[in-house]
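Dear support,

We are seeing what looks like truncated structure output for some complexes. This example has two components. We would appreciate it if you could run it in full and send us the complete token output so we can diff it against ours.
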Amino acid sequence: MDIETDFDLKAYLKKQQDIVNRALQSYLTDPEARITKAMEHSLMAGGKRIRPVLCIAAAEAVGGNSDDVIPAACAIEMIHTYSLIHDDLPAMDDDDLRRGIPTCHRAFDEATAVLAGDALLTLAFEVLSGGIKGVDSKDILKVIGIIAEAAGRNKMIEGQMRDILNEGKLISLAALKEMHTMKTGAMIEASVRTGAILGGGSEEQIRFLSEYADKIGLAFQVTDDLLNVEGDPEIMGKAVGTDEKRDKSTYPNLMGIEASREFSADLINSALKAVEKFDNKAVPLRKIAEYIIERKR
Amino acid sequence: MDIETDFDLKAYLKKQQDIVNRALQSYLTDPEARITKAMEHSLMAGGKRIRPVLCIAAAEAVGGNSDDVIPAACAIEMIHTYSLIHDDLPAMDDDDLRRGIPTCHRAFDEATAVLAGDALLTLAFEVLSGGIKGVDSKDILKVIGIIAEAAGRNKMIEGQMRDILNEGKLISLAALKEMHTMKTGAMIEASVRTGAILGGGSEEQIRFLSEYADKIGLAFQVTDDLLNVEGDPEIMGKAVGTDEKRDKSTYPNLMGIEASREFSADLINSALKAVEKFDNKAVPLRKIAEYIIERKR
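Here is the complete output from our reference environment:
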């Protein structure tokens, strides 16, 4: 049996998503509180769980125990969800629909959505500080630092700031790449590094995996832009064509659709090259890289 | 010389505030970025720094080195400031003025204010994870957990949620106390516990200091309510009488002004009793307790 060929990515993703979903749900104690309901509305809306799955797959790739990284994987998904809730707010992107259901401020109200985002961000650090077992405290602190930096003012938040400031402006391809590296790339890299560190990876392995993450992070965004042009709103659970309506700078409109497709394919090839020295335990990471540009939502 | 009588609280507060302000400023690298300017606008607006000073004073009270707790004290002030920025938003309390200057969303815009709050909350955990020296990693993780819990959905955020839901409603005194314990008390207690833990306090000392913090936290809120009725807007740097305009339940309107004053004095007496076994190193904590109900802003 050839592991690489016979690997069933769909089954793997489903299995990891189920594990992550169960773990995420377990953190939402006090289900009757309005704040919990708002957090749950957005957190359990059936996201792809790309970041947690990458975190788990990175831990596996370095021979680590995937159970040890579930809390960190969940914390990362909480941070991702908080960022979506706040980005959707009327003062930001003013979106009504997300993951096929009303955005948090639409389902509840604006104040509740601000607080639900704040609560998810804070809960992420509570889980990181107390939920990870069997790992040295120094490594846990390191991971908290990596995640906080990636989610912080020089990366994810600065990326969103620039995204807002750039709305309606045509920016250069270099500026677009930098913005995306900040806005989405940094957290994807942090997900992979977190898995690699908690899984006990060597310095060299962590470096290769960071390179892998950097490439797939950018490819992920290019594909997102392509899906916004060519995607099926039914499958995606959100409107398409919204970037063009907003005069947003995107890869398709700066490079053209065909060149964007080639660019993302090149990025995935570089990602695969970065993990070529890894053994079969990295098969999930390889398959996820391919999936990132083939996905329909 | 009698340390207790001759202790100059004003000079002590000024010294600690200066140390905290310098440290806070040092975290605001990249001063030209819009997000940094917005963070700085609110963070460096001359707050009283009650929480960081309590954190430092608690470390001193257990014989710890105050330098070791400065990063944690700063992180706590960042979280406090983020909560003010978000609470002031139009969707929440819709305040125009804070600490004598325009609120963050007034000085910048709503999107920037949401992001500046998010960035301060995230930076707090970055500083906690990497900025504390000379303390065991396990204790740092414990402190991160305490702060995240106090700032989280069952405490500070739930308190703010209830504050919004209760607006215009007359609630019971018990419900008001519970709300305040969540909204402000939990973070004050976390500040003191953080100082005590990082300062190397014993279990018993930490228990007494938590009791102290619990009492002064509530007294702080009662005094805030009294100042909103009787305070001088010039000294306070913000409008007074706003609670009444909003039909807010407060101690003065549920208990009467005189009974509120007595209640806060009783709380301070209980706080002083909780730290009576401590030696002279707890003088600052004792003096701060007295200051809390005597303050004019």
